């Protein structure tokens, strides 16, 4: 029986279940073109529908539509350039990557990440503690944002904020979705025409050789 770990909302509803891998993305502060803002509105609506729908077949349909819309949003975000802090500035990217790796084996198993100039992608599997409780995705995101923001803003004292307040997340629905997500994350800079192949991108990581039967 599937057991929920947490359910809460900020700008978006967030729902976590046991033994799931989670794909998470969030972006840096900064203005966005109107078409990207419209995509965010559509994703919010899909997320609301997913949270309120009980029928399994309908949930699968909405989840796939949400994933596709999230990928469209991501492509638009990757093509958008502004003058804010560039997350791919080497010292900034190293701070973010260090934070991701620090909690690996503590709060989650780190599978894949990719740092883009104005947003990040992260694929993790939250872990259980000694009491059997699962680390909450919301708390994982809070820790990562808090640490990286403090350290990066020391390098950019003229800036007041780094990250947008909320994040997009979804759980992985089977092995095909898992490998699709790994490939998508790693190929983000290729689709944005920033690298010819994902192995050339210095701001990504993958330890995706396991699936281990995660749902």
Summarize the structure.
The protein has 215 residues and is an alpha+beta fold. The protein is built from six helices and seven strands, in the order βββαααββαβααβ.
| CATH architecture classification | 2-Layer Sandwich
Treating each run of at least 4 consecutive H or I residues as one helix, how many helices? Answer: 6
Corresponding CATH superfamily: Transposase IS200-like
Trace the largest sheet across and list its strands. 6-3-5-4-7
- Give me the CATH fold name: Alpha-Beta Plaits
CATH domain class: Alpha Beta
Q: Please give the domain count.
A: 1
The total strand number stands at 7
Q: Overall pLDDT, averaged?
A: 85
The shape, in one word, is globular
Q: If you compute it from the alpha carbons, what radius of gyration comes out, rounded to the nearest whole angstrom?
A: 17 Å
The helix fraction, in percent, is: 40-55%
Structural class: alpha+beta
Could you spell the SSE succession in H and E letters?
EEEHHHEEHEHHE
- Low-pLDDT ranges: none
Distance from first to last alpha carbon: 12 Å
Strand content: 15-25%
Largest sheet, in brief, is: 5 strands, antiparallel
Please write out the topology.
Elements: E1 4-9, E2 13-17, E3 22-27, H1 34-52, H2 56-79, H3 90-102, E4 108-115, E5 119-126, H4 137-155, E6 168-171, H5 175-186, H6 188-191, E7 204-206
Antiparallel strand pairs: 1-2, 3-5, 3-6, 4-5, 4-7
Helix pairs in contact: 1-2, 3-4
General description of the model:
With 215 residues, the protein is an alpha+beta fold. α1 (34-52) packs antiparallel against α2 (56-79) and α3 (90-102) runs antiparallel to α4. The chain starts with a strand and ends in a 9-residue tail after the last strand. β1 (4-9) and β2 form a beta hairpin. The strands form two sheets. A five-stranded antiparallel β-sheet has the order 6-3-5-4-7, with helices on both faces. Strands 1-2 form a two-stranded antiparallel ribbon. It is 42% helix and 19% strand. It is globular.
């Amino acid at each position: 029986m599937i057991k929920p770990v947490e359910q809460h909302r900020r700008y978006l509803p967030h729902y976590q279940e046991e033994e799931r891998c989670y794909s998470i993305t969030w972006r840096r502060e900064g203005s966005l073109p109107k078409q990207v803002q419209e995509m965010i509105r559509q994703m919010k609506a899909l997320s609301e529908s997913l949270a309120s729908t009980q029928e399994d077949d309908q949930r699968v349909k909405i989840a796939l539509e949400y994933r596709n819309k999230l990928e469209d949003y991501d492509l638009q975000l990757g093509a958008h350039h502004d003058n804010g802090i560039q997350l791919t500035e080497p010292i900034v990217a190293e701070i973010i990557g260090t934070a991701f790796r620090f909690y690996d084996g503590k709060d989650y198993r780190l599978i894949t990440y990719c740092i883009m100039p104005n947003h990040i992608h992260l694929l993790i599997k939250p872990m259980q503690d000694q009491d059997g409780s699962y680390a909450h995705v919301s708390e994982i995101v809070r820790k990562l944002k808090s640490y990286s923001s403090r350290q990066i803003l020391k390098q950019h004292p003229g800036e007041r904020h780094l990250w947008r307040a909320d994040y997009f997340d979804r759980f992985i629905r089977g092995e095909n979705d898992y490998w699709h997500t790994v490939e998508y994350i790693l190929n983000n800079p290729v689709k944005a025409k920033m690298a010819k192949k994902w192995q050339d991108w210095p701001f990504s990581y993958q330890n995706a050789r396991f699936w281990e039967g995660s749902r």
